[in-house]
Design brief:
heterodimer; A: mainly beta; seven-stranded mixed beta sheet; four-stranded antiparallel beta sheet; 48% strand; globular; B: five-stranded antiparallel beta sheet
Chain lengths: 116, 111
């Protein structure tokens, strides 16, 4: 079916506002990942979901960041009281982890967040 | 902890061969992935290695040595469209399903 989709593609917000980013994974993919990528930098892991549970939240930078996943499908990443250092591209990826190459992650196009 | 290292930038000429190295330190190694990322786009999967040796896939090959904590991506017959960042990512069983990505190598292919 369709690939991973994310919305919005671009978001400009004022410092202190809350934002919500959405990810629709590939149908049937049980694992979902959120990453952050600042300009010219590598990928920074934020959180991982297996089904609706998040066994690894170790990458969330602060308690202003939270994420949930419902129905084993759509996930939302919420950033409260945004700060300028939150400006980055937020990438979502999904996979169907059965071991080996099937763990390959498929990435969405990302949401470019700019905090003014 | 985990540490993945790649050269920051490389330059090569169209038609040439380039090798992009990746070194890693991990305690529960369970696979190494290479991704390609064009500017402004999402990463796309290139190759996967879990056993030592060379995996060939058209113009791209990837090599792994687990004992040395070392991998490389070999790109042959370079084309202008190969200008992109190349990300090395390691899966570590001690981190569950988590992957750790290297900083990426920005490759510029010149005419």
């Amino acid at each position: 079916g369709a690939g991973v989709s994310q919305s919005p593609s671009n978001k400009v917000t004022e410092k202190g506002k809350d934002v919500e980013l959405r990810c629709d994974p590939i149908s049937g993919h049980t694992a979902l990942y959120w990453y952050r990528q600042s300009l010219g930098q590598g990928l920074e892991f934020l959180i991982y979901f297996q089904g609706n549970s998040a066994p690894d939240k170790s990458g969330l930078p602060s308690d202003r960041f939270s994420a949930e996943r419902t129905g084993g499908s759509v996930s939302t990443l919420t950033i409260q009281r945004t700060q300028q250092e939150d400006s980055a591209v937020y990438l979502c990826a999904s996979s169907f982890p059965e071991g080996g190459w099937t763990d390959t992650q498929y990435f969405g196009p990302g949401t470019r967040l700019t905090v003014l | 902890g985990q540490n993945i290292d790649q050269p920051t930038e490389m330059t090569a000429t169209e038609g040439a061969i380039v090798q992009i190295n990746c070194t890693y330190q991990t305690s529960g190694f369970n696979g190494l992935f290479w991704y390609q990322q064009h500017a402004g786009e999402a990463p796309t999967f290139l190759s996967y290695n879990v056993l030592d040796g060379l995996e060939e896939k058209g113009r791209f090959s990837s090599f792994l040595s687990r004992s040395k904590g070392y991998s490389y991506l070999l790109l042959k017959e370079l084309q202008m469209k190969d200008s992109a960042s190349y990300l090395c990512a390691v899966r570590d069983l001690n981190y569950g399903q988590n992957f750790v990505f290297g900083p990426g190598t920005r490759l510029s292919v010149l005419p």
